[in-house]
Structure formats: C-alpha cells, structure tokens
Write a structure and sequence with these properties.
- By secondary structure, the chain is mainly β.
- The protein has a single domain, classed as Immunoglobulin-like, CATH 2.60.40.
- It starts with a strand and ends with a strand.
- It contains five helices and 13 strands.
- Strands 1, 2, 3, 4, 5, 6, 7, 8, 9, 10, 11, 12 and 13 form a 13-stranded mixed beta sheet that branches.
C-alpha cells in the first residue's frame, strides 16, 4: 500500500508563467502529478514514486527533463534551480520550529539531502548536507532500477507541430496515447534519516510524522511549483502545509 499525494500547481503567477512558456493557461492547469509514499519496514526504507503527465506534445517539448545517466548518480547541490523531485520530512507534527530534512532528486540521477534545525535554518547556501552514521559521509538515495529509464513519451492523434521539427519521434506515422508521462522512483533509508552527528532528526518507529512531496518543473527556464498545498507565495518549507504521514496507508510488507 502507499499514501497517495495529488500535487497541484501554484497559481499566483499562472498568467505570466503561461505567457513566458508560450502556452495557454489551461495547458498548465492540465498538468497532473501524483506521488506515492511507501514505507517498507523490511528494508527500513521510505520509497517515493513520482508520476507526471503532460497534456500535449507542445508542452512536453518545452519541459526540461534531464536524461537519466548512471554516471551522474551522486550528491549534487542546487538541484532545485531546475526540474527537481522533492520531499520534506519531519519527526514532529505540532512544533513549527522543529528540525526537518529536505530531499532533492533530479531525473538524471543526481540527488541531495539537507538538514534544517528550524525554518530555513541555517540559511547557508547550499544548505548543510545530511550525513550518514559516520558523521562525514553524505547521505544518499537508492534509485529503483525498474523506474530509472528515460521518460516514456506518448502522444495520440496529434499532427506534427513546428516546435517539434527536430523531435526524434515522427508523430505522423506512429500511434501514441494521449499524454506524455514521466516517472522516477527512489528510496531513502529510515536509519539514514534518523542519524545525524549531533541530533536524532527522525526517531520513533518510522520517525516520520509529517511528509511533503513536491515537484519543480522547468519549462523554457520558467519554474512551476507543485505541492498538495501551497503557501503564498509558494514555499515548500512552510510546515503548516505539510501532511501527516498515514502509517496504515504507507506501510507495506
């Protein structure tokens, strides 16, 4: 089983974003993103599966979706500056000042995990990396091999568009389905999340009380922000918009 999150687009600058990207507002509103969070206690891991559906070939052609490269799987800072799969976790529900962890992952295999003692604290850039048990080795994620292929690109009943002139897919001769679909899945060790050289960031049985999966999609150098709930302006670090972890839904064998 999994806890399912349906992410929605932050709309404060929707009109300007659509104009910059060169599409209509409805195109952006029809982007669909879902995230499944699963706790596999036998592996002591939190698994996060991201699925992104774009409504048209035109929008897909403008998406910055870095191609998977095994050679690029490593800790990398500043991933949030372009397309990025993110998740925030905390060990407490009520305390707005408690510490928390931010997870970043690029579709190309790069990743980063950061620790915060309070809201965006410390405020250094890049943030302080989360460490493994030895206190020096940076934390890491595990990519699911079955979902680490390049994106599945599918379009149905579409005629070639000028913007796709250099696209490798011949839309006039191949049968497609109606959406462009992108997916990635990765796991994070619960033991790794619970260990830090100074503090136990996530404790108890699973350690996770609040969880906030979110996504940044970049189109033509314009970033769009997706989450289950948004602050104004969008700010993924605002804990009041995070969701309690549903253990019954998230736990798997």
């Amino acid at each position: 089983m999994s806890q399912l999150f349906t992410l929605r687009l932050a709309t404060e600058t929707l009109s300007a974003d659509a104009e910059q990207i060169g599409v209509c507002i409805e195109e952006l509103q029809n982007i669909r993103i879902s995230v499944k969070a699963s706790l596999v206690l036998s592996e002591r891991k939190l698994w996060l599966s991201y699925q992104i559906h774009l409504p048209s070939a035109m929008l897909a052609a403008k998406l910055d979706w870095p191609v998977w490269q095994q050679s690029r799987v490593c800790f990398t800072d500043y991933l949030w500056q372009r397309t990025c799969l993110e998740c925030f976790v905390s060990s407490k529900v009520a305390d707005e000042t408690t510490n928390y962890i931010e997870i970043n992952a690029s579709p190309n295999g790069q990743y980063a995990l950061y620790k915060f003692d309070d809201y965006r604290t410390p405020s250094t850039y890049p943030p302080l990396p989360l460490s493994q048990a030895d206190g020096t080795t940076k934390a890491k994620i595990t990519w699911a091999k079955s979902l680490s292929n390049q994106q599945v690109e599918q379009v149905n009943s579409l005629k070639p568009h000028p913007i796709l002139a250099n696209h490798s897919v011949d839309l006039s001769s191949t049968r497609f389905t109606s959406k462009y679909q992108y997916q990635r899945c990765f796991g994070v060790s619960l033991d790794q999340l619970s260990l830090d050289s100074d503090n136990c960031y996530l404790s108890d049985d699973t350690g996770i009380k609040l969880i906030h999966p979110c996504v940044i999609l970049q189109f033509c150098e314009t970033n769009l922000y997706f989450a289950s709930a948004h602050a104004t302006p969008p700010d993924f670090h605002q804990r009041r918009y995070w969701t309690p972890l549903d253990l019954q839904a998230a736990l798997t064998k």
